[in-house]
Amino acid sequence: MSDTTRESDRIMHAAKTSLVTQRDGGTHRPGPVSKSIGRGSAQAKMRHWLKRGAYLVAAIFALFVGTGIIGGIIGGIGTWGVMALGLAVMIAIAVFVLAPKPKPPKRSELKQGNPKQMVARTELWLEAQRDALPAPAAAIVDQLGVQLDALGVQLETLDDAHPAMREVRELVGEYIPETIDNYRKIPAHLRQEEHAGGTADARLTESLTKISGEVDRVTRRLAEGALDDLAIKSRYLEYRYGGDELLADLQGEGGEQGSGVPLPDLDLAPQKTR
């Protein structure tokens, strides 16, 4: 009878690894369609496809114009010419359909440009890294996309010399990519092993959670001025135009609007004697 101890150990180890993976949220596998994590990345990809679509229309137009010119010179293109034109159009469409997705920006480009460009580049870069991350970390990346959209709106009204702008460029252009790059340098079979009190997957999720909280804190701090302005404007409008209670106070008896100032009672006033 053969010794099955080694096989049993292997099965137990695989079961333990699977249990840990499922407890952490399961293995993240890319779906058939890569969903945009934010409005910035979605708009960047849309601009990419619109640009390629314009190239396709221009190519097809050039094919028809060229075919018409050749047909006018030689007195017609004939059946073979029509077939060649159809084949050329099909090739052009195939090139458009099979064209690669927009390349993710380089890490050095993340903190360049205006806030709108910075947010779009960072979201595209995060989308390219998402499939290599564990499920809990990938969920935080999706959350970061929404947060970066909100942060970008706040940054559009700031000057480049504003201290918050430098803080955001450091947070978005350095801390986020450094955290994910350090994780991806670890071999896949070592990412779930305990080291210094935790696994690489758990540390990545914890770090991204802290970064997400910091992005939310900066967004809230930048929005405080607008919130204060809105509150002051609301109080002014309430004072200027009043509400139902203020109008009720200003109404006199019989439904007529009074001046809001009580009049003295002349009957109770002391009579001046001569």
Overview of the molecule:
The chain has helices spanning 5-23, 39-74, 78-97, 115-130, 135-155, 163-184, 200-241, 244-250. It is 67% helix and 0% strand. It contains eight helices and no strands. Helix 2 runs antiparallel to helix 3 (78-97) and helix 4 runs parallel beside helix 6 (163-184). With 274 residues, the chain is mainly α.
Give a short synopsis of this structure.
This protein is mostly helical. It has eight helices and no strands. It has helices at residues 5-23, 39-74, 78-97, 115-130, 135-155, 163-184, 200-241, 244-250.
List the helices and strands and how they pair.
Elements: H1 5-23, H2 39-74, H3 78-97, H4 115-130, H5 135-155, H6 163-184, H7 200-241, H8 244-250
Helix pairs in contact: 2-3, 2-4, 4-5, 4-6, 5-7, 6-7
